[in-house]
Amino acid sequence: MTGLYAKFVSRARTGVLATAMAVGTAVAGMSGAVAQEIKIGVPLSLSGPVAFAGTKMKDAMDLAFEEVNNSNFLGSMKLVPVYADDMSSQPQGINVTQQLALRDQVSAIVGYTASNICQASLPVAQEFKVPTLQGDCVVPGLNKIGEYVYSAVRPSDSFVEQLVAKVTPLKQFKTAAVLYQRENPVFAHLLGVITEAFKKQGVKIVATEAITSGADADFSAQLTNIAAAKPDVLAILLLGGQVGPAMVQARQAGLDTTLFLGEQNFDSSEVRRVAGKAAEGSLYPSHWFAASPLEANKKFVEVYRKRFDRDPDTFSANGYNAVWMMAQIVKKAGSGDREAIRQAMETIGEMDTIFGTAGKTSFEDRLVSLTPFFFQVKADGSVEQLQ
Amino acid sequence: MLLQQLVNGIVAGSVYALFALGFNLVLGALNILNVAQGAIFTLSAFVAFYLIKLYEVPFPLALLLATIAGGLINVALEILVFRPLRGRGGTSMSTLVASIGASMVLLSLAQKISGAQVERFPFETLPEVQWSFGDVRLSFIQALVLATTVVVMIGTYVLLNRMKLGKAIRTMAFNERIARMLGIPTGIVACWTFFISGALGGLAGVLLGLMFNSVHFLMGEPYVLKGFAAIVIGGFGSVIGVIVASMLIGLAEVFSIVIGIGTFRDVVIFGMLFSFLLFRPNGLFGRDEELRP
Predict the structure, then answer these.
(1) What ipTM was estimated for this complex?
(2) Which residues of A lie closer than 8 Å to B, measured between beta carbons?
(3) B134 to chain A nearest CA, in Å?
């Protein structure tokens, strides 16, 4: 019964979503009925070291909330975002989660930017039984927190493993080095994952260097050590804002022909703008890319460019996609009741998404199912998809 | 590789020195630990970045204007924040808290302006020249940082020891009331002290933004604590001390990476700071205070 219903709702929603996103604001204001306001908590890192990602997520989430409400996608219901800045800090992440759950009495939460903040805050959301869809944290284990916590993105470890397995025979890597940020749980975890992945492919790790914090900008000493080992490939596991400067400094340190390899945060126009020609040859996986031919994605990219006069990147896409997923969940729940929303998350089945090739996803073990794409940066700064 | 790391350490130390010299000036003369120096460092880098990117201002002029902007922002802080506090008999604790507040305001401004994004100076801002001496590489910007540090060090030394303004600053550092009794216009001297301090911070911000290809709203924050460590280790008010301590910090950071304890480099730096506070609180070149019984 549930399966049939889910299928029916899914099919109906697919049509509605496509139409709704196309119709846009035209439908807004046509209904004279008073909309039922459903408060959605949106904790993001809007200041502090991760603000470069959080602010982009917010821009795209604003856009998505507007689209959901203006397109009448939820009928008589309307989503009201309640933004909260976790200031890129774990204690503040816990505070804002408590505030959203207790003071603001939100029906659900969608958001979060940094993995360490997700690790600290999502158990709080679970404790207060607030259905939560985190939209950007890629550290593993978040799906084990409890039945109220779902993820709209997948952990980066399997993507990175697949990337190493794919490109090592292609590029004939023999030696590799790793530069990572040790205080960040994602990168600390990825260090082990990528080291194992290289070893599995017969690639020798010749240097591993750490930087201390997300605010560091001088990597010259670490890169001098790495350059002395002359690796074929250098894995850069740093915050998005540090990746571009690290690439330039790596070339200056003498890594003239070494290819760079990284995770999803390489997929940023900011990285390519800062790194310039130093980024040539860089390899990375991503669940999304701006040129994806999906109709919903094309519309997102077009509207985002028009509104903000810049290209969206992974963070923007994650924010936008998470809001639309939450809208589909609320539609299925049919109300702002927390328990109804949790049940909807559990039973929703297939959802529309701007990620992947089919434009469809579903939750498996409280994680979205996604297949990554693999990319390489070309000499002119554009990106080609590796087949 | 060791020689290259030596160069890396000296260059890193030079940036700390440029930052810490300005920091030290205000601390030594007015007993104000102005942590907003980090925000001034950042805002000046943004001034130069936008002048070059949006208005295509030539680099030397942009550097000069950004340096002046750093000085003027600091003068504004003196007039709007610190002077009123001093006038009401504010303690060093109240000025510290005020400077933290000022820093947060300025950082929020920088975040708003930049949209929290990481930027870099346009690629042709400086010649992308790199000289090689055997295994050692030195880029044009690294050479510029080293040369600037030497010039600033000499300039600051001459200012404090040979010029009338410097003597007035030193007299104020000894005792502001006595300086006033001697006819020194302390308000104007304080403004000049803040201007020079902010200008040095601004100069450091632009050069660092260029050298590390990264201009963002939090770029000055790591330098506040390191700058403070350089002042404590070098000795309050000592130009030579600050330079030597900054170099020590730069070299300690780099060589902790060389010997494989890079993840503990902050432990090394702040361990040094702690040891000096315990065993030699006046720093390497600081003089013992003599108190009249």
Answers:
(1) 0.84
(2) 46-49, 51-52, 54-55, 182, 209-213, 215-218, 220-222, 224-225, 228, 240-242, 244-245, 248-249, 252-254, 270, 273-274, 276
(3) 12
